[in-house]
User: Fold this.
Amino acid sequence: MMSRYYFDLCNRYRGRAVEITTRNGRKHRGIIRNVDQRRVYIQPIGRPSGFRGFGYGFYGSPYGGFRPGFGFGIALGAIGTLALLPWLWI
Assistant:
């Protein structure tokens, strides 16, 4: 199962900067902060794209509700590719 592959990979890369491309082509850059059986939670890096968009406001918490600055979740099953980013790109 591909979700198990990305679960293991995301746990291995916890605390590292990554670029995740979802199956629908959206790219997300961030630092992996947490992983559960359904989602990887990243703290966005780079320029924000808009109010309460990527890099702004309140983000989903793996424990329900929202917390400021925590990051947001990406479904493991939605991941198309995951690549480590060199720190120079941040």
Summary: Helices lie at 2-12. The radius of gyration is 12 Å. Residues 2-12 form the longest helix (11 residues). The beta strands are 17-22, 27-35, 39-44, 58-60, 66-68, 72-75, 79-84.
